[in-house]
Design brief:
With 293 residues, the protein is α/β, with parallel strands linked by helices. 29% of the residues lie in helices and 23% in strands. The protein has two domains: 8-87 and 270-291, ATPase, nucleotide binding domain (Nucleotidyltransferase, domain 5); 94-264, Rossmann fold. The chain is built from eight helices and twelve strands. Strands 3-2-1-4-12 form a five-stranded mixed sheet. It has a four-stranded parallel sheet with strand order 6-5-10-11, sandwiched between helices. Strands 7-9-8 form a three-stranded antiparallel sheet, with no helix packed on it. Helix 6 links the parallel strand 10 and strand 11. Helix 2 (83-89) crosses helix 8 and helix 5 (191-203) packs across helix 6 (221-233). GO terms for molecular function: 5-oxoprolinase (ATP-hydrolyzing) activity. This is Hydantoinase/oxoprolinase N-terminal region.
Length: 293
C-alpha cells in the first residue's frame, strides 16, 4: 500500500549485535535491511546508515552536499533500541549522584532486605547449595550513584488522635499532601546548604542527580526546591522521584529515579547523535524511540 504522504516510513530495531530496518516506500514497496549495530570502519550509526542506503537505492539522491541524509524524504521514524539496556548492564551510564534526606544515605544500598531467610547469618544461594558460603560470597547489586548528598529536611505523617509529641508538634507547620493526608514539616529545606553542596558536586564532574526524599509522593515541594536550585547551578539532568515514579515506597521510587538519572542522559546523547546525521537534525520529524530496559 502506497504511503499517503508520498514519503518513506521507517521502523528500526537497533539491537546489541544487529540492527534491522523495515522501510515502506512511497509506492508501497517494502524494503528490509540488516546491518551490524557497530561497524565504525564503514559508518558511525547503523540506523542512520540503514535509512541512507534505502533512500539512496530508491531515489538516487539521499544526501545533501554536507553528507547528511535528506529528512524531507521521510514521513516518520520509529525505533526500538537496547542502548539503555546495554548501558545498564555494562555500567556505562551517566555518572550521577543521589540527593536524599539526612541519615538516609545508605537506604538504597541496604534496599528492602528481601531475601529467602532474613535472619540467616549464613546465606545460601540456590546455585551455591553445595558450597560453603559466607557474607563475602554474597554479591549485592551495585548502586548506580557515585556520590550522595544528605539534606537536613524532613516531613512525617500527622497521626490521628493525641500524640506524645503534641507540645512539640504544635510548633511544626502542617501541610496537606496531594493524597489528602496531613503531614508535619519538621525541617524546611536549608537552601544555602543545599546550594553549596550541589556546587561542590557539580565541580567534581557530576552532571546528573536523582532527588529522592521521604513522602515526596504526597509532598513534592522539597524535591521541587532542590530541583530548582540544581537547575540554576546548571545540572544537565535532574530526576525528581515524585515525577519519575509517584509511589509511596521510597526504596523502589529511589531505584527508579536513580535509573532515570543514570540512563536518560546516555539515551539523549544517542538520539542527538542519531539526529545529527540528518538534514536539519530531524527538527521536522520527531523520531519515536522505545527504550528497552
Amino acid at each position: 500500500m502506497a504511503t499517503k504522504s508520498g514519503k518513506f516510513q521507517f521502523a528500526i530495531d537497533r539491537g546489541g549485535t544487529f540492527t534491522d530496518v523495515f522501510a515502506r516506500c512511497p509506492n508501497g514497496k517494502i524494503r528490509v535491511l540488516k546491518l551490524l549495530s557497530e561497524d565504525p570502519q564503514h559508518y558511525k550509526d547503523a540506523p542512520t546508515e540503514g535509512i541512507r542506503r534505502v533512500l539512496q537505492e530508491e531515489t538516487g539522491n539521499a544526501v545533501d552536499s554536507d553528507g547528511n541524509v535528506d529528512s524531507n524524504l521521510i514521513e516518520w521514524i520509529r525505533m526500538g533500541t537496547t542502548v539503555a539496556t546495554n548501558a545498564l548492564l555494562e555500567r556505562k551510564g551517566e555518572p550521577m549522584a543521589l540527593v536524599t534526606n539526612k541519615y538516609f544515605k545508605d537506604l538504597l544500598l541496604i534496599g528492602n532486605q528481601a531475601r529467602p531467610s532474613i535472619f540467616s547469618l549464613n546465606i545460601q544461594r540456590p546455585e551455591m547449595e553445595n558450597v560453603n558460603s559466607n557474607f563475602e560470597n554474597i554479591q549485592r547489586p551495585e548502586v548506580l550513584y557515585s556520590q550522595v548528598i544528605e539534606v537536613d529536611c524532613r516531613i512525617i505523617p500527622k497521626l490521628d488522635g493525641k500524640c506524645q509529641l503534641e507540645e512539640i508538634a504544635s510548633k511544626w507547620r502542617i501541610i496537606q499532601g496531594t493524597t489528602g493526608e496531613d503531614f508535619y514539616v519538621l525541617k524546611e529545606i536549608p537552601r544555602q546548604e543545599v546550594k553549596t553542596s550541589l556546587i561542590k558536586l557539580k565541580q567534581s564532574g557530576i552532571n546528573s542527580i536523582a532527588v529522592v526524599l521521604a513522602h515526596s509522593y504526597a509532598f513534592p515541594e522539597h524535591e521541587q526546591i532542590i530541583g530548582q536550585i540544581a537547575e540554576e547551578i546548571g545540572f544537565g539532568h535532574i530526576s525528581l522521584s515524585h515525577e519519575v515514579m509517584p509511589m509511596v515506597r521510597i526504596v523502589p521510587r529511589g531505584f527508579t529515579a536513580c535509573a532515570d538519572a543514570y540512563l536518560t542522559p546516555h539515551v539523549k546523547r544517542y538520539v542527538q547523535g542519531f539526529s545529527s546525521g540528518f538534514k536539519d537534525n530531524l527538527q521536522k520529524i520527531r523520531p519515536r524511540i522505545l527504550k528497552r530496559i
